[in-house]
Design a protein that fits this description.
There is one protein chain. A two-stranded antiparallel sheet has the order 1-2. 1% of the residues are buried. α1 runs antiparallel to α2 (59-94) and α2 (59-94) packs antiparallel against α3 (99-111). The chain is elongated and about 55 Å long. The chain has helices spanning 29-54, 59-94, 99-111, and strands spanning 7-9, 16-18. It starts with 6 loop residues before the first strand and ends with a helix. With 113 residues, it is mainly α. A hairpin with a 6-residue loop joins β1 (7-9) and β2 (16-18). The longest helix has 36 residues, at 59-94. The protein has one domain: Metal-sensitive repressor, helix protomer (Methane Monooxygenase Hydroxylase, Chain G, domain 1), CATH 1.20.58.
Length: 113
């Protein structure tokens, strides 16, 4: 790390991160495992949809499977947003970082598109 780089301490893990570098989450191993398991299932669903298209499966059936994938992704997003609000955001607010509110609102607006 460059000596002139501004550093900021992560509020949860108390590790030092360089400003502008990627931040990391600090969720429990159970949460990470749950999110990864869900994403693995979704990955399988997406491969299944691709196979359906390759096999010329009836469009309505493919569209229903795509809707299922979107719903599963929304579920992952909701879980991650909940964990983010209850940990990262709470801690940043407690430290007086009010900018996190704008960051979360921007993310939620993107999710609502």
């Amino acid at each position: 790390m460059d000596e002139n780089t501004d550093n900021k301490s992560c509020p949860s893990c108390h590790s030092e991160i360089a400003m502008g570098d990627e931040r990391t989450s600090h969720h429990s191993e159970k949460t990470i495992r749950d999110l990864v398991n869900r994403m693995n299932r979704i990955e399988g669903q997406v491969r299944g949809v691709k196979g359906m298209i390759e096999r010329h499966v009836y469009c309505d059936d493919v569209l229903n499977q795509i809707a299922s994938v979107q719903s599963a992704l929304n579920g992952v997003s909701k879980l991650l947003l909940e964990k983010h609000m209850k940990s990262c955001v709470r801690e940043q607010l407690q430290e007086g970082d009010e900018e996190v509110i704008d960051e979360v609102l921007k993310t939620i607006f993107k999710m609502m598109k």
